[in-house]
Amino acid sequence: MTHPYRQHRRILVASLVGTAVEFYDFYVYATAAALVFGPLFFPASSPAAQLMLSFLSFGLAFIARPFGAVLFGHFGDRIGRKSTLVASLMLMGVSTLLIAFLPTYAMVGWIAPLLLCILRFGQGLGLGGEWGGAALLAVENAPHGWRARFGMIPQLGAPVGFLAANGLFLLIGMRLSEAEFASWGWRIPFLASAILVGLGLWVRLKIKETPEFAEALAKDPPIPVPIGELIRNHALATFAGAFAVVACFAIFYLSTAFALAHGTTALGYNREVFLAVQLAAILFLVIGIIISGICADAFNAARVLTWGCAATIGLGLIFGPLLGSGSLWLVWAALSLALFIMGFVYGPLGAWLPSLFPPRVRYTGTSIAFNAGGILGGAVAPIAAQALSEIGGTSLVGLYLTVAGVLSFAGLMLARRRNVR
Questions:
Q1: Of the candidates 254, 240, 362, which has an alpha carbon nearest to the alpha carbon of residue 302?
Q2: Which domain CATH number covers 409?
Q3: Tens digit of pLDDT for each residue in 156-167?
Q4: Predicted TM-score (pTM) of this structure
């Protein structure tokens, strides 16, 4: 008998490649926001204020993502997963590419940050429709007993995209001077996005519609307004799902965007050295996702997510002190542990979140829950961490992770108590 991965190879590659491209685009911005966007686009009274404004622009995409979830979810539940995924990828790719050509504040004044924020909003709008569709593409093609292992494939797009984005920034930083990097070097990763988007489109245009959606469409016509149906009959599932994803976003963006900015400014580490540390740590996210996907099929996705939430609560007590320890090895250990734990609150989501909704509103429900949770866990995390570090150093930063773990645990308990499955 053909192995399920081989049998559905094209589908799984399409879900992985597209998500990797989307996360590459999204994280290229996060890295640039941590390293150069502050002084280039947001003149302010101090470097800390510039960094805060840069992180605010970074958080703008998380505000856009729920709108993207509603927009792309509407079409994903009405016309299908494939066409919607192609459209979301194109919007994300065009927004990222245009950032490469933006003038800075020194060139055109306030128009520069305005254009940057508009394109950042476009990035968020595109990603709002990406993850949910990619997860459905995988799990709605999964054979019996393989939903979590299929659902973890698009999750691997996050570390792949991160490796590509930070790896490219590392190579550029090693070859260019500080002045060259600030002047034009930071634009190269945004230009490179065009190649990756072309690859993602080529793969996705070759896939077919998912069998579960086709079957649902054959039984009944599509719902005219999926978001209305979701609010009327599935509000509790959406609410529970949104809180359940807070922890994974908080871990990722504290371990990447905030850690990079704080490590290269307040802690004084060399930029290339710290990027290399993060690249080594991200491999533990891959391991965590794979192990959690296997465990979620062996037990169930909700149980594995609960393990991850408990670990996140404990992680918050040691993350801040380790990050500010003054030892690069301890910093690497903190980031590696955090990203490994993230695998357990992120990997099973590809199977668990879609299970909360019926096929006819599944794209909308999954996308809204995932991206609404991203506001609390992702948009707020670097901003809150920066503010907490200004007040009491890194020892306070980890408390944000503890709170995020508690919120996600509460979301899982709410789903279980109300029999939302």
A1: 240
A2: 1.20.1250.20
A3: 988 998 889 888
A4: 0.87
